[in-house]
From TrEMBL:
Species of origin: Kitasatospora cathayae
Full protein name: Nitroreductase family protein
Taxonomic superkingdom: Bacteria
Length: 520
């Protein structure tokens, strides 16, 4: 594995797909289908037939605390708060009935979660809160070898896949962006929950794909693995493997499986040619070219930075926050409210730290820059700021916004839908496109989206800790956002736009799904 280096790579299909999906909204949405009465609509959950099922305890702690061992209770807690169902919605059409602990575009939840334990390989069935056995045996070491690492055997290895048909029935090729974003959102939540339990997660964007797909019985075109996440108890040691691993050699030792799955939805390889091409181009056949590098930071600040006050951030129970986190009503409509901007600032200032990922050198922060457009936050003047990841300072941004305020400037470059009046703030996560593709080739598309998703989830959790809804919005014009944020280089692209506000009730009936708590 090469660290702190950028490998020169030829431009591939990934950069063009980036242009379409992040720079040309009209082209990206040109093939969008209606979600209502769509004959290609898949089932809400992936269902396996005839496989052994391992029930998880329904009694989980109401507060997340460190565990001494990764036992059945710890596993159930991690899965329940990681990707369990948080609420059920009842409305007139039933299109968005299930909500989970993380956000998902139109509640499609295209990302699937697989769990590799000492006794077998499982799929997490969130609808029934059980693990479905796919393969017997301990394959954790094989998965760490696929990531090019060695060291202590992990307690478990989570694999996140993208079941593209779940989103492609509406969004066609654009489903690749949504699924990679949501893999990052889920990875971010698993990481947060694991840390609260004294576990350590490592995000691997880079792994050889064929053995992972064969192990899980996945079709690489329809549902590729997107992230591999080993989980360790604190103190475990991992390191780079001393030998180069090849996909062919690792896959050769795995007997193929074809578990019986209830087929639903369209066939992506036949319907989404561009998605399929980009996905195939991202696959890796050996670990020799794995690399890490740090992105180029945009230079946009002007004026004296605002130093982060030495304020104590109130500690919150993450379990409560995750149950309360939401994306707001269908029409995002803020209500006028007073929000402690300094507390939010302090929470956001630490959002990029503490993640272990193979996308950047050890100890480097999440490789996305955070910009904050302030509307109504106490303690922070209205305006646009870049959040300094090292000091937590807010650097005012000089921009040419035609004399309008910061929030209005963002509203003008966002597709109509959300209401911006009384918006507390808008967060933009800015990625370095050239860093992604120069370092990871066509796999760079998924790497930068997944890293952005992880950070976006942390932003939404920070907002939820103060009673704010966090709405992820992809419907914006990238060039207009650049102008509003003072960005001058095309390489620096807004990957996520997140609206933060207290919101009023929508026209929906939503019932929380509460776990049966047990004191620990």
């Amino acid at each position: 594995m090469i660290e702190d280096a950028v490998i020169e790579r030829e431009d591939g299909v990934g950069r063009e797909f980036w242009r379409v999906t992040l720079e040309d909204l009209a082209e990206a949405m040109g093939t969008r289908q209606s979600e209502y009465g769509n004959p290609d609509e898949p089932l809400k959950f992936k269902i396996y037939r005839g496989r052994p099922r391992r029930p998880l305890t329904t009694r989980v702690p109401g507060k997340l605390t460190a565990v001494e061992a990764f036992d059945d209770s710890a596993l159930a807690t991690l899965l329940r708060y990681g990707y369990g169902i948080s609420r059920q919605e009842f409305d007139t059409n039933g299109t968005w009935p299930y909500h989970r602990m993380v956000a998902s575009a139109r509640c499609l939840f295209g990302v699937q979660l697989y769990v590799c334990l000492a006794d077998g390989v499982y799929h997490y069935d969130a609808a029934h809160d059980v693990l479905v056995l796919l393969r017997d045996g301990d394959h954790r070491r094989l998965l760490t070898r696929a990531t090019g690492t060695a060291g202590s055997l992990p307690e478990a290895v989570f694999v996140l896949s993208g079941l593209f048909a779940k989103a492609a029935y509406i969004y066609r090729d654009y489903a690749y962006r949504l699924c990679t974003q949501e893999a990052g959102l889920l990875a971010g939540n698993i990481d947060l929950v694991a840390r609260s339990m004294g576990l350590r997660a490592h995000l691997h964007h880079q792994f050889v794909d064929e053995p992972v797909h064969r192990l899980l019985g996945l079709d690489a075109d329809e549902e590729p693995a997107l992230l591999v996440m080993p989980l360790h108890l604190a103190g475990a040691v991992t390191r780079r493997a001393p030998v180069v691993e090849t996909a062919a050699a690792l896959a050769a030792g795995i007997d193929p499986i074809e578990p019986d799955v209830v087929r639903s939805g369209l066939r992506v390889a036949a319907t989404c040619p561009t998605l399929t091409e980009v996905n195939r181009a991202s696959l890796r056949v050996d670990t020799a070219a794995f690399a890490t590098a740090e992105p180029v930071v945009p230079v946009v600040s002007d004026g004296e930075p605002l130093a982060l006050p030495g304020t104590e951030v109130p500690e919150v129970n993450l379990a409560d926050v995750l149950r309360a986190r939401d994306s707001g009503p269908g029409i995002f409509r803020p209500v006028a409210s007073r929000v402690d901007g300094v507390e939010l600032w302090a929470r956001l200032a630490r959002a990029r730290a503490g993640v272990t990922s193979d996308a950047v050198p050890a100890g480097a922060p999440v490789p996305l820059e955070m910009f904050l457009s302030v509307g109504d936050l106490t303690g922070i003047p209205a305006g646009v700021y870049r959040l300094d990841p090292q000091t937590g300072a807010l650097h005012p941004v000089a921009r040419a916004a035609g004399g309008v305020d910061a929030i209005t400037a963002i509203e003008r470059v966002t597709i109509p839908g959300p209401v911006f009046r009384d918006m507390n703030a808008v967060v933009h996560l800015i990625g370095d496109r050239d860093w992604a593709f120069d370092t990871f080739g066509d796999r760079g598309y998924r790497v930068i989206n997944q890293e952005a998703g992880l950070l976006a989830h942390r932003v939404c959790v920070a907002a939820a800790a103060q009673g704010l809804s966090g709405r992820v919005v992809n419907a914006y014009h990238a060039e207009g956002v650049r102008a509003a944020l003072g960005l001058t280089e095309q390489r620096h692209t807004p990957v996520f736009q997140i609206l933060l506000a207290r919101t009023g009730p929508g026209g929906r009936v939503i019932v929380p799904v509460e776990p049966e708590e047990v004191d620990r």
